[in-house]
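User: For a benchmark we're assembling, each entry needs the component sequences followed by a predicted structure for the full assembly. Here are entry 17's components. Please fill in the structure.
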Amino acid sequence: MQKILRKRIFRDLKENQFRYLALALLVVFGMYIVIGLVGAADTVIIRTAERAKANRVEDGQFAVFVPLTEKEKAFLEEEGITLEEHFYLDYALTGKSIRPEEGRGAQDAGSAGGVVLRIFSRRKNIDLVQVDSGELPKKNGEILLERRFCEEQGILIGDKITFGDRKYTVSGIGTAPDYEAALQNFSDSAVDSGRFGIGFVTEEDYRQMRDASGSISSEEYTYAYLLNGRITHQELKEKLKGLEEDGRGGLPEGLSGLAKSNGRPGPVSPSKLTRFVPAGDNPRIGSAGNDKLVDRAAGLTAGVIVLILFAYVISVFTIHSIEREARVIGTLYAMGVKRKELLRHYLTLPVILTFIAGAVGTGLGYSRLGVNTYLGESYGYFSIPKVDVVFEPYLLIYGLVVPPLATALTNYLVIQKKLARAPLALIRGEQKGDRVHTIGLSGGFVRIFRIRQLLREKRTALTLFFGMFISLLIVMLSLDCYTLCSHVKTESARDTKFAYMYTYKYPEEEVPEGGEEAVGVTMKKEVMGYEFDVTLLGIHKENPYFDAPVEEGENRVLVSSAMAQKYGIKEGDILTLLDEEKDRYYAFRVDGTVTYSAGFLAFMDIDSMRELMGEGEGYYNIVFSDHVLDIDNGRLYSVLSKEGVEKSAAVFVEQMKDMVIMLLAVSALIFGVVMYLLMKVMTDRSALSISLFKVFGYRKKEIRKLYLNGNFLVAALSALVGIPLSKAVMDLLFPYMVSNIACGINLTFSWQTYAGIFLGVLVLYGMINGILMGRVNKILPAQALKMRE
Amino acid sequence: MYLEVKRLKKSYGEGGSYVEVLKGVDLSVEKGVMCVIQGASGSGKSTLLHCIGGLDEAGSGSVSVDGMEICGLTPEELSDYRRANLGFVFQFYNLVPNLTVKENIQVCEYLTGSPLDLGELLDTLGLAGHQDKFPPQLSGGQQQRCAIARALIKNPKLLLCDEPTGALDSHTSREILELLEEVNRKYGTTILIVTHNNAIKQMVDQVVYLKDGQVQKNYRNETKIPAAQLEDL
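Assistant: Structure for entry 17:
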């Protein structure tokens, strides 16, 4: 029997080809996005981990105030660890620093203003550089540059770049596993390869650079280590803390004098150790894979939700068919056909359709158009080498099994109830006696008719709401992305009142003229599984750069609005911060929030902070100013400019723009197709009575009022409920999606945005209504008689 | 007796809307007989047919077909009973619109292990030339022939017809009745016909007249005439 009934499947498919095509395309599109997104996530997660291992990624790194002596290195290596110097120097590149080859003169490096290039010596043992093209520098005057930096600056192999008063030829382009997220500072919230990059030169070139001037800050003495399973991070840290800061001999010539200034040398640390960062806590390492963990979970979950929506839409059509064919079904039952036989028959088409569509979507997702597109997003942000796509069996099974499975389950639950009716009830075409018929309504005929029509179509209306809700979730996701980025951009620019922030390694005795002193200590605080840097900043109450009325007291702080948003902190809370260097927790009472969006800061009174940290009167290690100060670069860790903050903040908007547009388009497509298909079902179901009304002499306008305008109410009400609901749901979920990003989470929409979404829904409704009115007009009065049999 | 109905009662509704449709019907039909059940609207004739066909549940009493008691069977057992014993023909043909005539018949061919020969059945019912047409391409009479063929293909012992000519003109009605006559003769099928049409009683072996849910008349028609000779159809 199934063999015979199967023949009508193809005829049904042909008869309703546009409907099924639209549904199939939705599934294809949905699976294409899910498989592409998750496939790219798997590829990045797996391949970057493989590459990192192959390139001997560090187990961690630490920085010291002065280089380790040979004796100290030997002492540590005796413990079984492998050490490698990853010292670096930062250079500011001016617009004239990058000089493309002849013939590409249009790329005069005017865009290079404010660009920082971090130079390392070639690595031999840890964090090996993977060469994408060209080769590692073999002789003096050659440099290998990081891939994303080259892309942003338009640098190709063979180009000449100039920094530190010396010209270098680009011999290769590649990536390093310890700079997967090429953040200049650990506390940076986003990678900005247009402003920061890394490069590798020969050992000899590096030595010459160190001896010459020209870098914007002092050399950073960072060591990468491999534990080799012989010692734990904590044990290594304890040993490092035990190294006394007596190794001044290691200081570069000329700086030993600087170190004795300001009462204490540089950072508030009793030991040589200034920073200890296991790889797991390093935001630069493994960040591409971590970023994709959220994508993978969200993609797989969203895929199931969207597929259930599509399956439910399909079930609405199947139910429509079952209702239309009720008498036939009843007759077949009367002949002895079993319910499970018909159930199997009605499930066949949706299941086959979604299986084929899912397979096509999976194929497309895995094609160059799918995974590679999404990989492009990672390549465009993270410094990872080009990798081969990973075909994970589970994803293939997901793509092939989940669409038909979701359809089978959803349709089974919905259809089996419909088919469970008694044969006689089906033969008689009896409507199920529900409350619709017994609800007492008052008012005019048109009003009552429209309400009854809505109640009759409540299942379709609910599906419409469900479809709209899913689409609105995607809209909210895209707008939350945009809003977050937009707020970061505008608020960071608004809140950054200083022109320059100088962080000292070797502070001077006196605060430079025109500078505002501060004491900063980087601490850690965990949120949603990620640990971020929080700067405890000691300032004067009347400082001109932060509107932070700090009060005296060692345990009183004001937190920046970005921090309050990210950590959910409010006035009166107790804030606990970890000073990793000292391995000590500090608890503070939060006195309030300061409007500052450009970082996670906890402000306290500078004198109270000096006291808390055991520093002498007058100690400082940060200076803010509204103009460039004349400070010896050798004294500095880093210089942060307002322009730099603004550019970094703007990076988010640029990165998210394409995704926001794509998500809006996807949501509009899903919503448009679902709304069209469902409203068409409503119209089809009413075709008989519409034709009867035409027989009675009703005009087009009156028929539209009776049958279609009620849908406006459904669409408008669904939007009114769905918009705030989807916003609330997405606002709960979104922070988890960006849990790895160090920025405040302000997701507030303006009323204009809400109005725009509502208007968008109504415009889409209007367009679909217009198309459907054309179909209604085509219903002939004689159809009422024809459809009787 | 092939079919035996004893003290069959059936009611609908509760309280003020309570209606007793069958008030203790007794009826016996022999195998291979053509029997017509007549009565005014609301007399309970269709309900009786549905109870015999296992489509409706009897309130009390018994219905036995070929020695099998069907009252009290579960829906699944009733389905098996219908599958093994019954063919149904309704006033509205209830054909699957997007299956051809042949395919509509084949749907029920698979319900039995020993179906009738499809080609022969198509010839007998005059559908051989229409077997690849879809129901909307057929006349009402042709559609009803197709419905009869669908009911007969599984070679049922009992054919239940609910107003089989109700939607047809007199010429087509005669053709359908001639066909039922031939089916009865050729395959020995017991046929129960529920109808308003008074003329049909002349062509059958047994006439049952229901009034207000009770059998008012039940007699053998000794002056049976062929359907071709029926008047005032």
